[in-house]
Amino acid sequence: MEKKTSKAKQLAKELLYEPRPVASAETAEAAQNFCEGYKAFLNEGKTEREVTAWCEQLLLQKGYQPFCPGTNYPAGFKVYMVNRGKNILAATIGSQPMEQGFHINIAHIDSPRLDLKPLPLYEDGDLALLKTHYYGGVRKYQWAAIPLALHGVFCRPNGETVRLCVGEDEGDPVFCVTDLLPHLSAEQNERKLRDGIKGEELNILVGGTPVADEEAKNRVKLYTMQLLHEKYGIVEKDFIRAEIEAVPAFKARDLGFDRSMIGAYGHDDRVDAYPALMAEIETKAPHYTTVCVFADKEEIGSDGVTGLQSDFLFHFLRQLCAGQDADWITAFRASKCLSADVSAAFDPTFASAYEKQNSAFLGRGITVEKYTGARGKSSTNDAPAELVAYLADLLDENGVAWQTGELGRVDLGGGGTVAKYVANRNIDTIDIGVPVLSMHAPFEVVSKIDVYMAYRAFKAFNESLR
Ligand code: MN
Ligand code: MN
Predict the structure, then answer these.
(1) By C-alpha distance, which of 221, 249, 256, 194 is closest to 35?
(2) How far is the CA of 268 from the centre of ligand 1 (A)?
(3) For 206, phi and psi rounded to 5 degrees?
(4) How far is the CA of 130 from the centre of ligand 1 (A)?
(5) What whole-number distance in Å separates Cα of residue 401 and Cα of residue 403?
(6) Alpha carbon 193 to its chain's center
């Protein structure tokens, strides 16, 4: 009897796949160390502009030079390019000709948030408030009654861009969207959850002091505008020529008694951007030219000049090719791309939203997704099995913990990434990413092990000879 069991056990070990969490103290320590830098990065960059500026500073420190089209760069040379202050691309020239293809890592650096409307400021009930239009797929009820910070820019008539950031420093005031008290919520409680807070109820409280003159109208709005004028030299009409985002005011924090996780705003998708950047910077003499790309506008469909449906990346690649007199069509066809974006981690509290066998779990490493999309794989890059095999082998050979994952139960919902916009250019592309709990919430959760494995994955890809 006992012999039979052990034979079955042996058979199961040989034939069956049983994904497990990473349980190595050494790896956990390396992950803890790696994530100290990641938390600082999260706190320094809460908007696409801030992340771009932060990355540019670091790249310059690390010896990257602004990309100059038409240059034939030698192997190992490092260049970067900023697109309109909201995207950044960094590359290390490979020893192989560009016609052998690029190794591209892409993440996005925009996150769901509340954007101010063009004319946001108004007064009601002796309070000054700002009207917003939410950006990306937010569950609106999650954004009330939490501290918010305002980040953004005003563009002055002289062409100067003035930066605004209030709510991040310890001594700063913060802002918030208010919600009803439970004592008076009987009617609101009858709403569907998605309408718990409606779009036009996402109004941000910013002031309560009137100007002294009792004859004046809208005295609280006027006082608020007076403060803004003193501080930033702006008048109300200047809001139209601004880009201001309200984001959660809290900092990234270790989560759990074991500190194995990080709770923060904006993991989606900075949790892939930071590891990709670190891997790019540490890549010294790659075989293939590596390109690290941070896209904007992913959360609203990748449209626009800074989104991946624009040509900013493909122009950059073509200009790199032109410097070597290389045929870009051949180079694209030979390239490989890891489209890095977060995946949905299994949540035991909401288990029915997932199909457990094909879900990603916190702490099992980076997720490799053959496809994303929704309802019959609609609107996805469904990566060829050959490419999945390439990546699986690469990760295994380099000891990178990885798992597979699908975005929840079939027909429940779904989602997309930028992968298809790259694949549509005849570049082999596959989705990869760190699993997240409470995705798109003001406070998202990731596992440090997974963040570290993302870095290891990008590094292995950059250094690969295949
Ligand atoms: Mn994302
Ligand atoms: Mn997202």
Answers:
(1) 256
(2) 5
(3) -130, -5
(4) 27
(5) 7
(6) 26
Distance 272 CA to ligand 1 centre (A): 9
Q: Which ligand is nearest to the CA of 295?
A: 1
3-state class (DSSP) for residue 394 = helix
Interval between CA 110 and ligand 1 midpoint (Å): 8
pLDDT digits (tens, 9 = 90+) for 393-423: 999 999 999 999 999 999 999 999 999 999 9
Residues whose Cβ atom is located within 5 A of ion ligand 1: 268-269, 341
38 CA from centroid of ligand 2 (Å): 18
What integer pLDDT is reported at residue 36 of this predicted model? Answer: 98
Distance 417 CA to ligand 2 centre (A): 8
CA 303 to mean position of chain CA atoms: 16
Cβ–Cβ < 8 Å for 147, 174:
yes
Beta partners for 402? Answer: 366
Strands 428-433 and 366-369: antiparallel
Cβ atoms of 273 and 108 closer than 8 Å:
yes
Those residues with Cβ within 8 angstroms of residue 101's Cβ, 6 or more apart along the chain or in another chain: 288, 331, 332, 333, 334, 335, 336
d(CA 314, CA 317): 5
Dihedral angle sign, alpha carbons of residues 445, 116, 154, 125: negative
CA angle 241, 244, 245 (to 5 degrees): 155
Cα–Cα distances in angstroms (integers) from residue 443 to residues 39, 221, 235, 266, 267, in the given order: 13, 31, 34, 8, 9
At CA 271, angle to CA 267 and CA 272, rounded to 5?
135
Token pair of 394, please? Answer: 């690469």
Q: Tell me the ligand closest to 107's alpha carbon.
A: 1
What's the gap in Å between 46 CA and the centre of ligand 1? 14
Enter the tokens of residue 303.
Answer: 């449209």
Per residue in 69-115, pLDDT (tens digit) is 999 999 999 999 999 999 999 999 999 999 999 999 999 999 999 99
Question: What is the bridge-based pairing of β-strands 289-295 and 87-92?
Answer: antiparallel
What single DSSP character describes residue 93? -
Which listed ligand is nearest to 109 at the C-alpha?
Answer: 1
Return the SS3 of 88.
Answer: strand
Q: How many CB atoms lie within 10 A of CB 24?
A: 11
**CA 5 to ligand 2 centroid distance, Å:** 46
CA-CA-CA-CA torsion sign (281, 282, 285, 290) = negative
Provide CB contacts within 8 A for 436, sequence distance 6+. Answer: 267, 268, 271, 342, 343, 344, 345, 444, 445, 446
Q: Tell me the DSSP string of 226-266.
A: HHHHHHH---GGGGGGEEEEEEE-PPPEEESTT--EEEES-
